[in-house]
């Protein structure tokens, strides 16, 4: 396979969709504070199978189940540091195995969620984490160094909830040695339209960053985020259109990934495109068919 940066020059690449959503549909409980990370720890074969479903549906990038894995929240759940590192490594391995199970080639993107994701309190939608840029940098760097050892193809630094956390991850990936994309939480109230686009532009200038964009947001929030061109391709993977209630820990609204804006996203420079929360392998298949028809 080409490296992912080179592939983006040739045309759009299909990302997968909601791993937790697919695990939940298969009967696994993802309502706890560790979400899909708990399934990864207890039933890794289920996570491998979910990755295989996405690969079979046409996903060319498989995102690992490491989004919620941090050393502090795993310690609170009874995992020591060595066990947390093993779980991060396992997340990469089962994604590769999922692609092999489906008989498909796929890049493996190690999911690096925001600090708020490990708190399981919805703060990835608010940016209210109470930490300084330096504190966030130290927190991210520890996990990044652990997951880099597992040799994923790319780091999916995603749902970053504030300009301060974006600055922290930009510092943390300096010299990390693996290409990255940085996706901001366009649903976070810590960003307005101007600061979102300014942060995307700054992120795109960082060495090793191959794409920047938005994820975990309503599909209708994507277009404004792509209004200003940046130095690298855009990555886009919105939610299905449903809304998360952090207090009740439930989703509301109508499921399904609306792709009415796809042509506009592509025209604006989006090259990594997929789905986030509440999207399914069926949504990935529909997206892959649309993109392959354009090719």
Automatic annotation (TrEMBL):
Keywords from the named record: Metal-binding, Methyltransferase, Transferase, Zinc
Q: Which EC class is the enzyme in? A: transferase
Q: Report whether Repeat shows up as a keyword of the record.
A: no
Ranges of residues in domain Hcy-binding: 1-291
Q: Which Pfam families match?
A: S-methyl_trans (PF02574)
The record lists Zn(2+) as bound by 216, 276-277
Enzyme Commission no: 2.1.1.10
Name its co-factor(s): Zn(2+)
Top-level taxonomic group: Bacteria
**Which SUPFAM superfamilies does the entry mention?**
Homocysteine S-methyltransferase
Answer yes or no on keyword Amino-acid biosynthesis: no
Taxonomic source organism: Microbacterium thalli
Swiss-Prot/TrEMBL GO biological process terms: methylation
UniProt GO molecular function: methyltransferase activity
Task: Return the protein name.
Answer: Homocysteine S-methyltransferase
Listed PROSITE patterns: HCY
């Amino acid at each position: 396979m080409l490296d992912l940066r080179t592939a983006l020059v040739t045309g759009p690449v299909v990302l997968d969709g909601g791993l937790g959503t697919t695990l939940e549909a298969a009967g696994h409980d993802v309502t706890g504070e560790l979400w899909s990370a708990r399934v990864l720890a207890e039933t890794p074969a289920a996570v491998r199978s979910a990755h295989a479903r996405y690969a079979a549906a046409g996903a060319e990038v498989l995102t690992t189940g490491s989004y919620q894995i941090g050393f502090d929240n795993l310690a609170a759940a009874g995992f020591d540091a060595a066990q947390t590192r093993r779980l991060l490594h396992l997340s990469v391995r089962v994604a590769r195995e999922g692609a092999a199970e489906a008989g498909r080639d796929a890049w493996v993107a190690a999911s690096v969620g925001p600090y708020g994701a490990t708190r399981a309190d919805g703060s990835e939608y608010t940016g209210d984490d109470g930490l300084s840029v330096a504190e966030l940098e130290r927190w991210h760097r520890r996990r990044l160094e652990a997951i880099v050892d597992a040799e994923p193809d790319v780091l999916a630094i995603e749902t970053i909830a504030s300009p301060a956390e974006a600055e922290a991850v930009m510092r943390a990936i300096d010299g990390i040695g693996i290409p990255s994309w940085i996706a901001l939480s366009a649903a976070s109230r810590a960003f307005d339209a101007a600061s979102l686009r300014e942060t995307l532009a700054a992120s795109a200038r960082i060495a090793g960053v191959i794409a920047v964009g938005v994820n975990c947001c309503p599909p209708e929030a994507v277009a404004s985020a792509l209004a200003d061109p940046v130095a690298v391709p855009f990555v886009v993977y919105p939610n299905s259109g449903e809304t998360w209630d952090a207090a009740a820990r439930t989703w509301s609204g109508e499921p399904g990934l609306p792709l009415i804006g796809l042509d506009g996203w592509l025209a604006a420079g989006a090259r990594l495109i997929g789905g986030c929360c509440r999207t399914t392998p069926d949504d990935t298949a529909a997206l892959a068919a649309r993109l392959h028809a354009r090719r």
